[in-house]
Each structure stands twice: as C-alpha cells, then as structure tokens.
C-alpha cells in the first residue's frame, strides 16, 4: 500500500522531479500528529461507539491536503497528484478484491450454507472448544492457498453462526482465526501480499518459504493452546436443528474456489493483479444468479412439496422465506465501514510513506541496529502500520542479508500483524464482521498471549533454520 521513493518515478518520462522529504518540517509533523490522533480514535471504538472509518477518512484528507499544499508551494503539484493516484489505485484493487470476497461470503450465507455448517458441527456433538480448534486449524491450512483476508472472513462467518450469543467464544475464536490466518499465510508465496513481494523480488525462492512452516505453526499453536483453556466444552443449542441449504449453495462454494484459483493463476502465470481474477469470478456469480432467478419456479415447487410432505407449520412457514437470488443485494450487504476504513489506512500510510517517514525509519533500523533485532522490530511495526508498506520499504532498501534473515523478516512481517486487531487485513475485516464481540480492546487483552507465540516462532526459526544464517 503506497510507499513512494524517488525510484518509483524514475521510469516516468513525464517528470524528472524528485519527491520532497517532509519529515523535518511542519507538514510532516502535522501529518504524523493527525495520523496518531486518528488511530487513537480507532482504538477507542469500543468506548466511544464511533465507527472506525470516520477518523481515518478525515485524517487521509488532511494528510494529502497538507502534501498538496507543500508541493504546490514548490511548484510541483503534479508530483503530489501522481502519488495520490498511485495510492488510490492500490486501494481500488484492494476494495474490489474485498468486495468480491465479501459478496461470495454473503451469497453463501444467503444460501444458508453457514447455518447448515453450524447445525452439522453441533449435530456431531462438537463443543465450542472443538469449533475453536477446527476453525483455527482450517484458517491456518487454507490461508497459504487463499489469502488470509478471505480465509478469515469465511471462518469468521462460521464462528458467528455457531457462537450465537456466546460473546466470549466469538471473541476468542476471532482472535484465533486472525492469528491462524496470518501464520498460515507466512510460509507460502501466495498466503500474503508481503510474501508475494519477497518472492517476486527473488530474495527467497518458492521452495525456501516452506522452511517457515514449523515456526508459523508454533506461532498459531502457542496462543491457541492458552486461549482454548478459557473456552468451555458447551455444545451449541443448534444440536437438534435441521437446516437444508438452498438450491445452488454448493455451486456457489465451487465458484468461490474457482474464483480464487483464477486470481492466483492469473497473478502467478500471467503477471496480472489478483483483482482481475476476482472480478471475473464476480461475473461468474452474476451469471449463476441469473440462472437461479430464471429457474426460481423450482425453488417454489420444492418448498411447497416439502411443506405438503411433512404437513407441519414449520415447513409451511419456510415457503414464505423462498426468494429469488439477488447478487446486488449481496454486494449491498458488504461491510462498508471496513472498506472505507481501508481507504483511510491506505491513504494515510501512503501519505506518510510519500513524505519519507517509513524509509527513514527502516534506514535507521538497519543502519544502527543488529539485523536480527531490526527484523524482529519490523514485525512489531507491522502490528501498527500495514505490513505491505513496511515490507516495501525494506525491499526498496535491499539491506545486505542472508537467506535466514530474509525468511525472518518475512515471518515477522506476516505474523506481527496479529499482535493488534488493526495490524492485519484479517483483523480489520473481522472487526467489521463481528462488531459487537471482536473489537480492538478485546483483542488487546490477549496481546501478551499472542506475543508469546510471536517470540516462540522467532526462536524456533533461529534454531531450526540455523543453517540459513551462514
């Protein structure tokens, strides 16, 4: 997400101007102050009952307004405009990617897939603790193939359905999903944007990423083992509930898998942004929705037949719930507060990066600190600032590091975001999905436990992959 440096403009013939360094004047100080104030308001969402998108939207406007003023005074307004448009493009790709993922999730929910999955889990006698481990384990092993954001949204939907009014369970399960999804994405080139960046930069080869499997697993298991002790063995009340999915539910799942496959293959084989494949997948869902509407009579007939066969009020009542599938209705139900929050974060961080703060911070760390400590600090930094611009700053500097250190910074940047709910896309998305139960404060209470997993994963990597440090 939007970090600018002079080389970013080197290939543009339209301008030979260099970005201004604004880290030591009033513009930079004001931008940092506004950003800190906005994040403090985000952190206080649970106490203030203020939607998290509001402060960052205003902060983004102020920061880029300051940048525009500073560049206009120097006679370079076009440079600031180019920077803003670049960051806006980064957000547009993220927005459309998220929108498609959320639309598919909502479509699965409308087809009653998660209701059926919840009833199936409870029907098999799965306790809340078993569901905690099941969703966490699935998040860990799915995120290396899909991205951690989509994985978190999918597992979060299951947790919300199973948990019902069990707020403590939903809180811990969401934290577990965030940790698991981020940890699972750290050992695969496709699991996170940062790993993709490191792979494309050829700092780590495809097969070498899997050296991080055990450290990533430890990062997930340590906090999960502790948190699971605070979840009871209660079996959800839905144990006797019988839920039948609506027609086409399984095909929506297959289309979602196909969409992810198109996005991954399009990026890895054709070099196209993943959002291209996601939007193509949205088109496929729209075609399928058209088919469901054209054959809607089958749904009505099936519901009426079921009601007549069972001859009970419950079945007859279900007949009134049958409605045509509307893909645009699913899009409208996307979590727009989360999507707008991402806009604010991308533009705020992009603005600070354009001013030179992230490059300044990275340069100071790698010039004055031991490289191992610097890479550990990168993970801590990524819990506050998005890991993408942080990793971009490191890759732009190209510090002289051995393979083990590149693997270390890949690990820490990937799992460090789990320390805070705002530290990763998965956490931010789940804050919107489970707004009443999973908040910044509720996650912060368990940060010490998550930090144990963070430290343990680093120590395991230093010991298990010691040969890569020579």
TrEMBL record:
Keywords: Antiport, Ion transport, Membrane, Sodium, Sodium transport, Transmembrane, Transmembrane helix, Transport. Residues 46-414 form the Citrate transporter-like domain. One of its GO terms (cellular component) is membrane. The lineage of its organism: Bacteria, Pseudomonadati, Pseudomonadota, Gammaproteobacteria, Alteromonadales. The keyword Transmembrane applies. This is Sodium:proton antiporter. It is found in: Membrane. It comes from Shewanella salipaludis. GO terms for molecular function: antiporter activity. The chain crosses the membrane at residues 26-43, 55-71, 91-107, 119-142, 148-164, 169-190, 210-231, 252-269, 275-292, 340-366, 372-394, 406-426, 446-464. Its main location: membrane. It comes from the Bacteria.
């Amino acid at each position: 997400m939007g970090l600018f440096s002079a080389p970013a403009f080197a290939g543009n013939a339209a301008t030979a101007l260099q970005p201004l360094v604004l880290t030591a004047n009033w513009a930079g100080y004001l931008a940092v102050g506004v950003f800190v104030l906005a994040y403090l308001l985000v952190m206080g969402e649970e106490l203030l009952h203020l939607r998290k998108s509001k402060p960052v939207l205003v902060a983004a406007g102020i920061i880029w307004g300051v940048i525009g003023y500073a560049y206009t005074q120097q006679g370079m307004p076009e440079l600031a405009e180019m920077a803003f448009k670049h960051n806006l493009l980064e957000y547009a790709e993220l927005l459309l990617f998220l929108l498609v993922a959320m639309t598919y999730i909502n479509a699965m929910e409308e087809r009653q897939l998660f209701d059926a999955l919840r009833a199936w889990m409870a029907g098999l006698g799965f306790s809340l603790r078993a569901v905690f481990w099941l969703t966490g384990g699935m998040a860990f092993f799915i995120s290396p193939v899909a991205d951690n954001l989509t994985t978190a949204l999918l597992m979060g939907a299951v947790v919300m359905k199973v948990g019902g009014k069990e707020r403590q369970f939903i809180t811990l399960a969401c934290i577990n999903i965030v940790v698991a999804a981020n940890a699972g994405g750290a050992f695969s080139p496709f699991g996170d944007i940062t790993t993709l960046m490191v792979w494309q930069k050829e700092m780590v080869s495809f097969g070498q990423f899997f050296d991080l499997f055990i450290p990533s697993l430890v990062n997930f298991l340590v906090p999960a083992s502790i948190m699971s002790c605070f979840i009871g063995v209660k079996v959800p009340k839905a144990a006797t509930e019988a839920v039948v999915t609506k027609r086409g539910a399984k095909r929506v799942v297959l289309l979602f898998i196909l969409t992810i496959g198109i996005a991954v293959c399009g990026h890895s084989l054709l070099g196209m942004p993943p959002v291209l494949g996601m939007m193509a997948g949205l088109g496929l869902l729209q075609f399928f929705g058209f088919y469901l509407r054209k054959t809607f009579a089958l749904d009505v007939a099936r519901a009426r037949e079921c009601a007549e066969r069972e001859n009970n009020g419950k079945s007859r009542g279900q007949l009134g719930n049958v409605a045509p599938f509307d893909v645009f209705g699913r899009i409208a139900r996307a979590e727009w507060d989360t999507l707008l929050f991402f806009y604010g974060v991308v533009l705020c961080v992009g603005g600070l990066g354009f001013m030179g703060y992230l490059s300044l911070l990275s340069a100071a760390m790698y010039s004055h600190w031991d490289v191992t400590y610097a890479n550990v600090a990168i993970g801590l930094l990524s819990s506050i600032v998005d890991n993408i611009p942080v990793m971009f700053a490191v890759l732009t500097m190209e510090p002289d590091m051995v393979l083990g250190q590149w693997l270390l910074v890949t690990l820490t940047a990937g799992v460090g975001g789990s320390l805070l709910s705002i530290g990763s896309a998965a956490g931010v998305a789940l804050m919107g999905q489970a707004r009443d139960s999973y908040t910044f404060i509720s996650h912060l209470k368990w940060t010490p436990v998550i930090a144990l997993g963070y430290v343990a994963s680093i120590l395991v990597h230093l010991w298990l992959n010691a040969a890569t440090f020579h």
